[in-house]
Amino acid sequence: MPSITDPSPTSPWRLSVAPMMDWTDRHCRYFHRLLSRHALLYTEMVTTGALLHGDVARHLRFDAAEHPVALQLGGSEPADLARAARMGEDWGYDEINLNCGCPSERVQRGAFGACLMREPGLVADCVKAMVDTVHIPVTVKHRIGLDQDEDYGFVRDFVGTVADAGSTVFIVHARNAWLKGLSPKENREIPPLRYDIARQLKRDFPHLTIVANGGLRDSSALRAQLQGLDGAMAGREAYHNPWWLAGWDAEFFGTAPSAASRETIEQAMVDYMEREAREHATPWPSIARHMLGLYNGLPGARHWRQKWSDHRLKHLSASEVAALASSAFRPRTAETLTAA
Question: Quick check: 183 pLDDT over 90?
């Protein structure tokens, strides 16, 4: 990986897909890597408890094709985070990211996520413990404030304190996190987006890598954030409309597109599903769910999705389901083209 302080167009933080609970598992990341060779991919948040007391392989196993890939951790005990970070490094991850942005009540009960922003000294201790343990970048993802307090000094002091502990990359979800009264979904929609806060952080900390996150739904929005900031992170739009990623390599990294066509991506995923079935007994529906948006916007896409999401077909192989999906999809595409 390039230097952690490198803000160049080849920096791994230039474009990334956000960590999303229940979504960005290893199968989703494999799919996204087929679409873009260069975008940085993040795991779902993995708690320190899950790694220290649970099935490590289930949480950390990934395909080498996913690189560059970052492990996001949730926790608030410096020693536990250091142990979990070392596990991540040993498994081959390229980065360790600390979650200081999730506002869910379940995460708050664990005393981590967005509520950690109230304790910048503790976050600094957590970061220092990880930085002292691993040789890969330790980064932080956070909000710009808590509840309805919009004082810029709060996030400025948070970033300054944590940066002194050794983290130089901050992924800024440009909304406040309301810890009471809003669901996680509402927390992604109701608090207003204030990208100017990320830009002010970059002005105040020009030596840091500042990445904008939140509400970025098209390439023009990404380009706007790359003017003056070091990177942009897309979330749910990248998941629901994954073909968007297929244009990133050419548009933002100046290289040839990774994906030749939706059909080649689908076939690559069928090959992956069948390999996963042989090697890990992974049922194809747990993988196919991540690619249901592949043909979004095209005639016949709904019929294609219906086949890939039909659990009554789970006894079939992925190749057999692909054939059924194709037979449901292609005639409708052809009919539309003929009518046009």
Answer: no
